[in-house]
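Practice set, problem 2.
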Amino acid sequence: MAEIKPLRAWRYHNKFTPQIDSLTSPLFDVVSKKQREALYQNPLNSIHLSVPRGENPAENAAALLDDWKRDNVLHQDELPAIYVYYQHFQLAGSNKSYVRKGFLCHIKAYDWNEKVLLRHENTIPDAVNDRIELLEKTLLNSSATHGLYADPDFRLEQLMDEAMLDPVYETEDYQGARDVLAIIQDAKVIEQFINVLKDKQVLLADGHHRYEGSLEYRKKMMAANPKHTGNEAYNYHLMYLTNSESDDLRILPTHRLLEKLPIPKEEFLQKLEPYFVVTPKEDPFELNEVIAGKPWAFGLYLDGLAYKLRLKPEVHGMINWETTPEVKQLDLTVLHFFVFEKVLGIASEAQRNYPGLSYVRNFTECISKVDTHAAEAAFITNEVSMEQVKNVCFSGAIMPQKSTFFYPKVICGFVFSSIKEDEFTRETDPCF
């Protein structure tokens, strides 16, 4: 099953450790424009590698990476390691503390049909193309994707806890989470990580675009290499692995915003009625509460008016998309089929790149966007459960795009992973 390897990470030189707070950055697909502009002001911030700017951003990132290596801004660890990464956090409105425990390593970039790494979500093509170009130019994974493995015996947690007694980085990130990194270089301990994963499938929780970028680059390199063995650096990808059986895995809802309805709002509301019970609500800020825990229920905020939508159970069987029963049961499938396809006339495939359709985690932001006329309609959703993610993955199907928001997000800047042959794990390294 899943083949993982330790890696010789590139990290900021030790002289920058006291400044690590100012060098980390959010993932490329969650960093806001305002955050980007602020981070770009620091010439050493990791944003310059993960979300480069300019007319030729990927080439700019590659040139900057060479400069940073030459000037000793980044240095490569001498020994291969497993990088233990903990995130301590609380959720809004709760005093409960969580700690998501995981580790960073290289994993073979398995094709989807190999059924070793399983996806649960559609991707947006433009974002994949962007990641492919960046990887091809830099040969660097600037941030890790997030994968889940199932280990109900929690065999690795004690090893990770022990490593955390001597962390190398500790910082508070933009989400308010406390991020801590520790390093395991003991070959015998690393072997235990490899052994636990070797009989596991891995569910891709977050980073579908970055992972698909690695897959496409691997295919290109395989085609160009008649002596391909499967052990070349281009076969591997940087991943953050966490135990799916942990109670500290949190998934938050991702709401939908439409900049402009393709039909008049009066017609839209009228067309909803054959499929939904439409109930007006006084306060839009209660929409997330009135749908909480209710299947196939959504909040709609449209032109200053709030509604609760609840699918009529008898129409659920109308869903005729070629997918599995597990996917058809999902709230977001109901939303995308009945609202976007049946009512608004946006076909399933067109939804992936539909202009003006955006995905927003923050509930208050959704209300604000409609109030300020930055969007015409907000669709408020419930979160997807971990059990639903597992069921969909194992069914072999995928959810609508942007279905899950695993919280907190991994940050960039702690560890960079090279897939240049002369910088990859060496055959003489332990655990190779």
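Problem 2, part (b): a different protein.
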Amino acid sequence: MTGGPTAATRPRNRRQVIVDAAGQVFSERGYHAASMEEIAAAVGISAAALYRHFPNKYALFAECANIMVDKLVAAVDGWPPEAALKDVLVALTRVTVSHRASGGLYRWEARYLERADRRLLRTKFAHVVGRVTETVRREHPLPDERLRAVAALGVIGSVTMHHTSIAQRRIEELLLASAMRVAATDPAAATGNARPVELPVQPVPRTRRAEILAAAIPLFARDGFANVTNVQIAQAVGLAPSAIYRHYPGKVDILVAACLQAAGLLAQAVDRSLHQATDPHQAVVALAAAYVAYCFEHNALNSVAEAEIVGLPADLRRPLILAQREHIAVWEQQLRTVRPELDPRQARLLVHAGFGVVVEAGRALRWQDAPGHREAVTALVTGALAL
């Protein structure tokens, strides 16, 4: 006999197993909250064994981010330039759904990559967008083909941001149909029933506590919660760092306050939009318009709430998760009234697809708030929902 028990039982693809497990842990916990010990436990090895494959957490994180995008690149490059849009989107959908647990890593956590790694990741993703844009331009010669391509990719990528349980084949069918509709939607077309959106105004900071919160939000949005220090926040307000603790017990309490403010503003926007709707179809259009307006107007606040909630302790995260579920339940109910053929989980999947459109289309527009941008993204969301 050759080799001992360890050699006989060690899988040949151990490195890939590690990357798959790490991608899921990073996606669920966030880069900074995840630990090498936690990843090692998920693989079933010791932390020491894990360090034999990766010198540190960052090296593992960077490989996770790149592998997912490399799979997307391979999916589009597996088809010739003249391939049909449906074939390209099918390939992207299958890759994304099969890596659902770890595929959301690039959406929020990629900002923790070092500059060179972040630039490389953007270059790869731009290649995917470029390939999809060419097929969209050829099959649907309408305005804003790149925006439509990015929004279609947002539909597909949305499945990595939630845990709605549906058979994989059905997920692929729903996402593909939604992405195809988005690609064929004219962003310049009027949504028809949308009324002007009146959003609740973000509170003017009139107390020192409110000033601290207002100063922290753009810092969290730009650099990530984990990278921002109390010293930076204090400097932004003109306080000594120790003075922060008179208003917030810790930095995490500032983050919780930001997330609660975001949830409150969004709930008010939803209430206002539904109050004006006169029928179910108009209600869904109004929800889409309100959500798009909220994301553009309160972009820094919303991005902080979306990106950082996974890193909060469970007891602090619970009420925020409940608020998110209540918001999605409103969409689900209204959408199923318009499209009664959908069951609750299918409707929920499409609602998240609409959210994915907003995230990726908004980024493509650099969140430049203008009526035309809001209307274009709202049209793409309603296209994703098949209204």
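Answer key, part (b): Residues 208-385 form a domain with the Tetracycline Repressor; domain 2 fold (CATH 1.10.357.10). The radius of gyration is 22 Å.
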